[in-house]
Write a structure and sequence with these properties.
alpha/beta, 7-stranded mixed sheet, 24 strands
Length: about 725
């Protein structure tokens, strides 16, 4: 009986409930579970099946105790730093990297004798090496969520504190052994940069080091939608390839393989940044090496459970990491389903070595997807329908390329000329993988998106079908596939047809602190702005919302002004969707704009777009410049409703709009400048008397939007107020 597996299930479940603040550590809960454990133990007696229930409860009790210790002994010291500006000293653990506002790096802060990983943001532009000590004044923010609504992004990576420079000095780099992996990672990156053609360097760097920061948006999207994004996130695949190379070198010798392998696994995990997925694979393969060394049986489920316990003991909050969840779900799916699936497929295919390998690849991919698909849908909003084919076409090449890159790095140290020649050869398989990914992603229905509720219902239906299929005594996979395919056809039809039932459809997307709006009427689709907390995420959301409706191009894109939170995602979006018209405000100087196949206009005077039963009027800027008051204003008029969007205009720009043009009463007003105190002035409200006011704003933003006096002003006019930070994406239909 795999007792450790059941114990780990309870431990992991407890970590998840506590980390997401669904439960909190309390003495009554601990005593209740202790009583339950005792009762189960007594009732179970010698019945082995009943005893299984003991171990998850024991695991849950253990994590309650450990989580309480972890919070009170380790995390409690950070509570006093929340929101404070203090003089502290931070030692960088990695090279700093450029950001939009300076540089950022990971470091270590010593407090009360305990080390705390910290993400530090600096105003300087020079790149600092690991070991550099920063001393000065920093504004601090603790990353531990206080509620389920807070983001667990940093805590899952073991970073519990953010530090923003107020004033600091950088000393000379000090030597620390834990800085060696960062320097080695930097050296490997330089070897790749000097020996590979420019066009393949970002992919090669991501494949070998897991650093996808240099991949452009189009490539990232192609990898994601074709279903092979996992190859550029260093994970179990890469560790397994490394282990295969090690076995070839050592000839699987009992003592030599562990002697070389275990230090190599630790070093590779350190160079890859100790991500949960790499840690999981390294621990499991390390256990395999130890079992070979001591001549013991290796049990994969037990090894997976042990890896889970090790990672969560070091950092119980790692359970919130997407990398952790995907990695363990992938391996669990393979362990649960791969053997039976492979046996079934092989029984149906003719004899042949190639067909056997293909069937094994299909069974591994399908079994891995069985548990990772819901997570991918939840976190990334996509379900790739071509991932099996793409994996079959690319994974063998990816494996050979990874091996080639390892050889290139080793060769580059002693024979630079040979490494350059090898780099030229390796560029071709990389180009092949990218070509396949781009081609597969462009196929019709390569990917479906969970922004459509019908696709979400389809996914739930498929898993219900799968549960029934597993319980059936006689398995009929063809029936399962046909039912899933028919349900998908219905879901797609409803996703495409339902928007056509509305005369007018206004969608204010939840992009955080920014704005992105879809205006649809009479079969026409216009996007107004595309920006937010993250430009790529904003472009993803806008593209997914449009593509999920079966729309492959936009009738127009209107940019109200050139601030990043309104304009930042437009270029990314236009790599996925073409537009017939691009309207931008005239300004001096004119910033770089994306190129489209359709018509592009700089708006100075009002531009009118006539529809069959309505019209869109775009009002130009007040004067030449880039400030908020020069935002384009968009007025949509139809028999069904009138809508006004004012960009980031404040009270001055709103009054100028009313003075210069005749603006009618409207049903919907999208508040200017995210509801700032200087926006949605009294005069504008009196002139347009909106029934509903929508505010596109990010939760907990540092600007204090929407302002309290603006909300009071809207309430005094009796307006219904809808906010993306409270309601999420807002859909208005007539």
């Amino acid at each position: 009986m795999r007792k450790l597996v059941y114990f780990a299930l309870g431990f992991c479940a407890g970590c998840a409930l506590l980390a997401y603040r669904i439960l909190s550590v309390s003495i009554p809960l601990f005593l209740s579970l202790t009583f339950l454990l005792a009762a189960v133990w007594i009732l179970a007696g010698r019945q082995e099946r009943m005893q299984i229930a003991v171990y998850p409860v024991l695991g849950f009790l253990s994590v309650l105790a450990w989580f309480g210790i972890f919070e009170r002994w380790y995390l409690a010291d950070l509570d006093a730093l929340q929101g404070k500006t203090e003089s502290i000293s931070i030692v960088l653990s990695d090279f700093s990297e450029a950001t939009d506002y300076g540089t950022a790096a990971n470091g270590i802060l010593m407090r009360n004798g305990k080390p705390y990983p910290v993400r530090v943001y600096l105003d300087r532009e020079d790149i600092l090496p690991p070991g550099t000590r920063l001393t000065g004044s920093f504004r601090l923010r603790v990353t531990i969520p206080q509620s389920r609504a807070d983001s667990p992004y940093y805590q899952g990576r073991g970073i519990f504190l953010l530090a923003y420079e107020e004033e600091c000095t950088a000393g000379q780099p000090e030597f620390h052994w834990w800085c060696v992996p960062a320097r080695l990672r930097k050296s490997i990156g330089l070897l790749l940069q000097s020996n590979l053609p420019t066009d393949v360097q970002p992919f090669a760097r991501a494949l070998l080091l897991g650093d996808s920061s240099q991949l452009d948006y189009a490539t990232n999207t192609a990898l994601k939608e074709s279903g092979i994004r996992h190859v550029v996130a260093v994970s179990g695949l890469h560790v397994t390839i490394l282990f295969t190379i090690l076995n070839l070198i050592t000839g699987k010798r009992r003592f030599l393989t562990p002697l070389l392998g275990i230090p190599l696994l630790v070093l590779f995990a350190a160079v890859a940044g100790f991500s949960p997925s790499v840690n999981r694979a390294a621990i499991m393969i390390g256990l395999m090496l130890l079992s070979r060394l001591f001549d013991r049986e290796y049990d994969p489920p037990t090894a997976l459970a042990f890896a889970c316990l090790v990672i969560l003991t070091v950092n119980p909050l790692a359970v919130t990491s997407v990398s952790f969840q995907l990695s363990f779900a992938c391996v669990a799916g393979i362990l649960l389903f791969q053997k039976r699936m492979d046996a079934y497929i092989q029984a149906k295919v003719p004899e042949g070595r190639l067909l056997r390998k293909l069937s094994a690849s299909v069974s591994i991919t399908l079994s891995a997807m069985s548990l990772t698909a819901p997570l991918t849908a939840l976190y990334f909003g996509t379900i790739s329908l071509v991932s099996i084919a793409t994996n079959l076409l690319t994974l063998p090449v990816v494996t050979l390329t990874f091996v080639g890159l390892v050889i290139l790095c080793c060769t580059g140290v002693v024979l630079p000329a040979a490494a350059t020649f090898l780099g030229w050869i390796l560029a071709w398989p990389v180009r092949y993988v990218l070509l396949i990914a781009e081609s597969m992603a462009k196929l019709p229905l390569a990917c479906v998106y969970t922004v459509s509720p019908y696709i979400c219902l389809w996914l739930i239906y498929v898993y219900a079908l799968l549960a029934v299929f597993l319980l059936m005594p006689r398995k009929k996979p063809l029936v399962l596939i046909c039912c899933a395919g028919l349900a998908l056809s219905c879901a797609l039809a409803l996703s495409w047809l339902e928007p056509m039932l509305d005369s007018v459809r206004l969608t204010v997307l939840d992009v955080g602190q920014g704005q992105s709006i879809l205006l649809q009427s009479e079969g026409k689709t216009f996007l107004i702005d595309c920006g937010g907390d993250d430009a790529e995420d904003s472009a993803d959301l806008a593209a997914q919302w449009v593509l999920s409706q079966g729309i492959s191009h936009l009738d127009g894109v209107i940019v109200t002004h050139y601030d990043e939170d309104h304009f930042g995602g437009v270029e990314h979006l236009l790599t996925r969707l073409d537009a017939d018209l691009l309207l931008t405000p005239y300004s001096v100087p004119i910033p770089p704009l994306p190129v489209i196949s359709g018509k592009q206009l700089f708006v100075r005077e009002p531009v009118q777009i006539n529809l069959t039963q309505g019209r869109i009027t775009v009002f130009g800027p007040i004067y030449s410049g880039h400030d908020n008051e020069n935002s384009l204003c968009i007025l949509f008029e139809s028999e069904e409703c009138d809508i006004l969007i004012t960009g980031d205009r404040g009270s001055f720009g709103e009054r100028m709009l009313l003075r210069k043009y005749e603006v009618p009463h409207v049903d919907v007003l999208v508040a200017g400048h995210h509801g700032a105190s200087d926006a949605v002035c009294q005069e504008l409200l009196q002139a347009v008397t909106p029934d509903t006011v929508m505010i596109s704003v990010g939760e907990g933003n540092r600007y204090g939007h929407p302002a309290q006096d603006t909300l009071q002003r809207l309430e005094s006019f009796g307006c219904q107020i809808l906010r993306t930070d409270l309601q999420g994406t807002i859909l208005y239909r007539r």
